[in-house]
Design a protein that fits this description.
The structure holds two protein chains of two kinds. Chain A is built from five helices and 17 strands. By secondary structure, chain A is α+β, with helices and mostly antiparallel strands. Chain A has three domains: about 50 residues, OB fold (Dihydrolipoamide Acetyltransferase, E2P); about 80 residues, OB fold (Dihydrolipoamide Acetyltransferase, E2P) (Beta Barrel); about 80 residues, K Homology domain, type 1 (Ribosomal Protein S8, Chain: A, domain 1), CATH 3.30.1370.10. The longest helix of chain A has 14 residues. Chain A is flat. Chain A starts with a strand and ends with a helix. Chain B is of the alpha+beta class. Chain B is about 30% helix and about 30% strand. In chain B, strands 3-4-5-7-6 form a five-stranded mixed β-sheet. Chain B has a four-stranded antiparallel β-sheet with strand order 9-8-10-11, with helices on both faces. Chain B has a two-stranded antiparallel ribbon with strand order 1-2. Chain B has one domain: GHMP Kinase, N-terminal domain (Ribosomal Protein S5, domain 2). The chains are: A alpha+beta, B alpha+beta. At the A-B interface, loops of A face strand 5, helix 2 and helix 4 of B.
């Protein structure tokens, strides 16, 4: 017998029993105790075929391979860089993954490639069990980001900022004429004349991401912002 | 305020503050009270107010304190100097070290620390006002703050106290009853599993009285748990309705 006690997109919190069945599998944000599937976090329920999961409304970014993230170089070592990727773990960018050409580390200071404080858009290569995150610049989209400003949001809200097939982010880009790159770690890079307005729109999405009719609200904010 | 022991703490089945024996003081819970924290909460039992802030999971330094298998929980319970009638000397005391330790152990029961190896979860609890049952208020606030921070946990922790005053078993002991009554017994539990994670007692009880006290406290915890859940639900409802103050 499978019983599901919650609806799709319902708000749940730790300890809420979502379903009682051994046929349904616990997805992200849930755990199994005997027959019951229970939520671990405050979030919205997502039902998908045999899976039941909870999308958290807050929390830290946990890196996984293949993610594209925005990071800030925190330290330069002889053969690698430490990168702050807005996560409990530091990103590690090895020289071989950062620079295509041969570099003689005994003769060169590698800070000429990336220096402390510079912003990069990189791919997560590998995450070890103990939390070493290897990054790579060996990716068509990876690059150094010059200028602009960074906005940090809850990483679980990144899909809402992007919108369905990129609709939300395209709307903001079009209305504000800004260059925007969204990292999956919740760091967003904005560059352009209307940085302030774009930031306001993104923060609005973060705050009200669990509400329906968000697109109208955001476009209203962008329209009003234009008049000022 | 007059000092010294009142003659009787319970008169005609009513307590000094007019409550019944098995009645809570007014309770209040709130989340998202500190903007800069990852998660925060306030919990109040009458005049006892606790504020908790959670930061993390974040990298742990110095490195030798990291645990390669799980996150370390770092908890500080502190009473602010103006929280009681007599000024509390700032800084750590024997009492605050003890309470920090037991609260930390209670919280470790519910948090999935194994999901974040080598990190630390910092929890800071400040007692703004103290009038009995402070550790329970602190624990309630801390568990709400953890949930607000998005830290994965088995369940919220609900805590309340029971005790014996003037020969009667009572719920939710206040400051005067704690000082001049016979027994104060804080209890914290994980309601879903019906598991007690904190139980202390000072004073003497017979076996029967202890059982009665524990049952009463457990019942009280369920009431606290309900309030905590309502608090979270209401907060997100208010955000949905566009309340600017949340």
């Amino acid at each position: 017998m499978s019983e599901i006690f919650v609806k799709d997109r319902e708000l749940v919190m730790p300890g809420d029993v979502l379903a009682k069945s051994i046929d349904i599998l616990p997805g992200n944000g849930t755990y199994r105790d005997g027959e019951e599937i229970i939520s671990k976090v405050i979030g919205l329920v997502k039902l998908k075929e045999r899976f039941i999961s909870v999308i958290p409304l807050s929390g830290k970014y946990i890196p996984k391979p293949g993610d594209r993230v925005i990071g800030v170089i925190e330290d330069v070592q002889p053969t690698f860089w430490n990168v702050n990727i807005n996560s409990p773990y530091l990103g590690l960018l090895l020289l071989g993954e950062a620079v295509r050409e041969y570099v003689d580390v005994t003769k060169t200071d590698i800070s000429k490639y990336y220096d402390i404080g510079e912003i990069i858009y990189a791919k997560v290569l590998h995450v070890s069990r103990s939390g070493v995150v290897s990054l790579s610049m060996n990716d068509p989209k990876a690059k150094k980001l010059r200028g602009g400003k960074l906005v940090r949001i809850t990483p679980y809200k990144v899909p809402r900022v992007i919108g369905r097939e990129g609709s939300m982010i395209e709307l903001i880009k079009e209305k504000t004429n800004c260059n925007i790159i969204v990292g999956q770690n919740g760091v967003i890079w904005i560059k352009g004349m209307n940085e302030g307005l774009a930031t306001r729109a993104i923060l609005l999405i973060e705050k009200e991401s669990h509400i329906t009719g968000l697109t109208q609200k955001v476009s209203k904010l962008l329209e009003e912002g234009d008049k000022k | 305020m007059k000092k010294g022991k009142p003659e009787r703490l319970i008169i005609d089945g009513k307590r000094l503050d007019g409550r019944d024996l098995e009645e809570f003081r007014e309770m209040e819970a709130k989340i998202k009270v500190i903007k800069s924290a990852d998660g925060s909460a306030m919990f109040r039992f009458g005049n006892t107010i606790a504020i908790a802030a959670v930061y993390g999971p974040r990298p742990m330094f110095p490195k030798h304190l990291q645990n390669p298998e799980r996150a370390v929980i770092n908890l500080r319970y502190n009473m602010v100097p103006f929280s009681t009638e007599d000024r509390v000397r700032p800084g750590v005391s024997r009492r605050s070290i003890e309470i920090s330790k037991i609260l930390k152990e209670a919280i470790a029961e519910t948090v999935f620390t194994e999901e974040f190896p080598r990190t630390v979860i910092d929890i800071y609890i400040e007692m703004i006002q103290a009038d009995g049952t402070t550790r329970c208020a602190a624990l309630n606030a801390a568990s709400l703050a953890l949930a607000d921070a998005g830290v994965p946990m088995k369940d919220l922790i609900a805590a309340c106290s029971a005790g014996k005053v003037d020969g009667h078993i009572v719920l939710d002991v206040n400051g005067k009853e704690d000082n001049y009554g016979e027994v104060d017994m804080p209890v914290a539990m994980i309601p879903r599993e019906n598991k007690v994670v904190l139980l202390q007692m000072d004073g003497l009880l017979t076996k029967e009285e202890f059982e009665k006290c524990l049952q009463l406290a457990k019942k009280g915890c369920m009431q606290v748990y309900k309030l905590q859940k309502e608090c979270i639900k209401n907060t997100y409802k208010q955000i949905a309705e566009g309340d600017e103050n949340v």
